[in-house]
Structures are given as structure tokens and as C-alpha cells.
Amino acid sequence: VWHSTPFAPPDAIFALTAGYQQDSFDKKVNLGVGAYRDNDGKPFVLPVVRKAKQILASDDSLDHEYLPIAGLPSFVKATSKLIFGADSPAIKENRVVTIQTISGTGANHYGGAFLSRFYEPWLGKSKEEKIIYLSNPTWANHKSIFNSTGLTAADYPYYDPKTIGLDLVAFLDFLRKAPKQSVFLLHACAHNPTGVDPTRDQWKEIAQIFKEKEHFAFFDCAYQGFASGDLDNDAWAVRHFVEEAIPLLVCQSFAKNAGLYGERIGALNIVASHAGDSEGGADRIRSQLLILQRQEISNPPTFGARIVGLILSDEAMFEQWKGDIKTMAHRIIDMRKQLHELLVNKYKTPAPGPNGWEHVINQIGMFTFTGLNPDQCKAMVERGHIYMTSNGRISMAGLNEHNVEWVAECIDKAIRP
Ligand code: PMP
Predict the structure, then answer these.
(1) Within a 10 A sphere around the Cβ of 99, how many other Cβ atoms?
(2) In the chain, how many domains are there?
(3) What's the CATH number where 172 sits?
(4) Whose CA is nearest to atom 8 of ligand 1?
(5) For a pocket test of ligand 1, which of 105, 144, 223 has the largest count of ligand atoms closer than 8 A to its C-beta?
(6) Where's the Aminotransferase class I/classII large domain (predicted)?
(7) 253 CA distance to ligand 1 centroid (A)?
(8) Which one, 57, 242, 402, 415, has least CB within 10 Å?
(9) For the purposes of burial, counting CB atoms within 10 Å of the CB of 21, is it exposed (0-12), middle (13-18) or buried (19 or more)?
């Protein structure tokens, strides 16, 4: 009965990691996967997470019962405050609907599924007409997540390979020309894969058009804290859109900022226009999200929710977490500086764009879009044993003081004809 099942291609990122693991070269480097590593290239368990685990382990009152369908209440309440801010008008007015999800991927999936079922401008429309616009480029999984939830993924212009920066003019123009009430996915901060974020002034221009055109903002926030080292700073764009009363939802992930990759802890937040159970009210939205959750996973998992719930609700642990985030964000920023310094001053490597190697310092978050072309990326893998995707993206978290010199040398060799 499976004769017609075609062979699916392997996931590019995971295939890259497999190649890295099989490689016996002593200077090999994995710059493919977007997971934080410490200065010795090792996975990092945040000290605050270790502490939370100890507290949980010694709490005999904890059992293994099902969580409520919406998730662990203390987690659900605290996570929305983290992204919107405790003083957010949306939170004060009880307009935020939050459910715990299977990390950021699960939140994106529910976001797509919920829009497909209930986004009013799409009622009665076919899959082809339910278009979600994604930045070109975007996280590799976005397209397939949305295509699998009854939507059609399409591109909007975002990145300009000529400047290795934001193509603001084309982006704004596209927003203006798109049909009213279009749905746009926005990376809240630390854009993956480019590391190119709008400035606050640019966000304001973007928000202005959203308002005028009544577009829907589908925020994906997988790196809060990772961009600048400051949780509030990285939530600025989302909060600005809330203040401007733009219809929106936000996907959250604690994979990166709490290092809880495998625990699959995240949340989906939908902002309603008003509280209560009248038409358009938060309670109606919540009731439908609960149905969605029940159909897909019944109840969300407990462990990660308990860890994050504890960190977010204990003042001292919250402060410690902020410190841990700074440790990660600043190590990455330091690596940017070191790589830049080596390329510019030691190797004097010809840059792929008009602004020298400034983009290595200016880009934000875990990734740098180096500007290397596919052939140069291939050379990095084949000659340097440096594993990276063919679009030129490198994970800065894979760099450390022991390998940055080798990476810079290989970039130099790959670029020179
Ligand atoms: N969105 C973006 C933009 C991402 O980069 C990622 C992780 N690579 C995710 C969502 C989801 O990650 P997770 O499901 O591990 O939280």
C-alpha cells in the first residue's frame, strides 16, 4: 500500500550535521545548526536552568498528571508578559490569548492553522487564496509549515544581496501594493537566516503601512534576548505593533534563549480586539485554540513549562536568566568582532559587498549571512571542513576562540580566485 510513496529529501541542516559528525578532520567546524555552543564548542546548559532543575527535582509535590489543555498556568501567564511587557495595554485589558505549544515550530503551526480556519478575510477562500507572505529568505521550515496548514506561502522582498542588508524600499513598496488585510510573517528580532533586522525607525514605517492597509502581523519570535542581550529591547517591534493596534499574533520559543531546544517549550499568543466572549472577543479565540490543541496533541508537555514557569515567576531567577542570556549574546557579539578583525586586518580578504565586512558586525543574533556564493560555500565545506549551508549563512554560535582563526583563513581562501 506504500508503492506510490516518493522518497523525501533529507533536511538540509540535519544532513549537514550528519556530515560534520562523520568527518574525522581535527579542525572541522559546524556552522550549520542554529544552536548555541560555549567557547569550547560544547552545548550550554544555562546555570539558571540547572538551578530550576534542582528545585524541581527536590519538589515531591510535583506529579505527572496531564497539564490543562492551554498549558501550565504559571508558564502561560508569564510568557505573554515576557513578550508584550507587564504594562502592555493588551494584557491589562485581558485581550491576549496564550497557549503553550511544542516550541516555536508548534506555535507557527497553530498560528497557520488558526488563521486558515478563522481569519475573517479568508472565510470561504481556497488554499491558493490564503496567502501568507514570508520574507525572502526566511527560516527554511516556514514554507513547509504553512503549506501544511492549509495556507499558501509566498515571498516578500526583504534582503538585498547587493548591500548584504535590508531592502527597505522594496519591502515597503510590496506592503503598500499587497491587497488589504494581507498576512505577513515578521521575524520579531534576529532575522533567520540573514541577521538583518529593521531599525526602530524602519519598524515604525513598516507598522504605519500595516495600519493603513489593515495587514495582519504574524510575528515569529524565536530569539528574544539573543539579538541584543536584552529581553525588552528585542520585544520592541512587537510592542510597537500592539501600541499601534495592528492585528497580530506572536509565536514564542524558549529553545534558544533558555537553551531548552529538546524540551520543546514555546507559546502562541493571539491579541484580540477586546476581552470577553462577544464577537471577536478573546474568550472565543481561546475556546477555538483549545480545540486545536486538543486535536493535535491533547495536552502540552510538562517539564520545559515548569522550568520556564519557575524562571519567569521568581525574581532572583529571572535576573539570573537575564545574566545568562547576556553571556550568550555577548559571546556571539565578541565572535563577530573577532571574525571581522581577522578578515579585515589579518587576511585583508576582499569583501563580497560594497560595505566591506561591516555586515559581520552589523548583523544581529545567531546568524550571519556572509555573502559567500554557493561555490564558495562548497569550498568551505570541502576544503575547510567547515559545515555551512549553501546560502552563505553561518551560525556565529559555532565560532569560538579556538576555531575563528581557521574559519577566517578558509573564508579568505574560498573568496580569492
Ligand atoms: N522560527 C525561527 C525563525 C527559527 O529560527 C526557529 C528555530 N530555528 C523556530 C522558529 C523554531 O524553533 P523551535 O521549534 O526549536 O522553537
Answers:
(1) 25
(2) 2
(3) 3.40.640.10
(4) 34
(5) 105
(6) 27-409
(7) 7
(8) 57
(9) exposed
Q: Do 157 and 123 belong to one domain?
A: yes
Q: Is 213 among the catalytic positions?
A: no
Whether 41 and 85 map to the same domain: the answer is no
C-alpha cell at 151: 495556507
Pocket of ligand 1 (CB under 6 A): 34, 103-105, 108, 139, 187, 192, 220, 222, 253, 255, 261, 266
CA-CA distance, 416 to 167, in Å (whole number)? Answer: 27
- Which residues, at least 6 apart from 351, have a Cβ–Cβ distance to it below 8 Å? 343, 357, 371
Cell of 330: 555577548
Cβ neighbours around 80 below 10 Å, total = 22
Query: What's at 414, amino acid-wise?
Result: A
Residue 66 lies in a domain: no
> The domain containing residue 197 runs over which residues?
73-313
Sequence-ordered alpha helix ranges (H) in 69-199:
73-84, 89-92, 103-118, 140-147, 168-177
- Does any domain span residue 147? yes
Q: Whose CA is nearest to atom 12 of ligand 1?
A: 104
335 with 281, same domain?
Answer: no
Ligand 1, atom nearest to 139 Cα: 3
Q: Indicate whether 239 belongs to any domain.
A: yes
CB atoms within 10 A of CB 105: 19
Residue 250 · residue 238 · CB < 8 Å = yes
Residue 133 within any structural domain of the chain: yes
The single residue of 51, 130, 167, 220 carrying the catalytic annotation is 220
Q: Are residues 33 and 92 in the same domain?
A: no
Please give the number of the atom of ligand 1 that sits closest to the Cα of 105: 14
Ligand 1 center to residue 203 CA distance, Å? 22
Shared domain for 38 and 167, answered yes or no, is no
The question of ipTM being above 0.95 is answered as yes
Q: Quick one: 298 and 224 in the same domain?
A: yes
pLDDT (tens place) for every residue of the chain, 417 residues total:
999 999 998 888 888 889 999 999 999 999 997 899 999 999 999 999 999 999 999 999 999 999 999 999 999 999 999 999 999 999 999 999 999 999 999 999 999 999 999 999 999 999 999 999 999 999 999 999 999 999 999 999 999 999 999 999 999 999 999 999 999 999 999 999 999 999 999 999 999 999 999 999 999 999 999 899 999 999 999 999 999 999 999 999 999 999 999 999 999 999 999 999 999 999 999 999 999 999 999 999 999 999 999 999 999 999 999 999 999 999 999 999 999 999 999 999 999 988 899 999 999 999 999 999 999 999 999 999 999 999 999 999 999 999 999 999 999 999 997
The active-site residue, picked from 256, 321, 324, 357, is 256
Active site residue 122: no
Q: Are residues 388 and 265 in the same domain?
A: no
Domain stops at, among 284, 313, 342: 313
Q: Do 285 and 387 fall into the same domain?
A: no
Give the Å distance between the CA of 262 and the centre of ligand 1.
Answer: 12
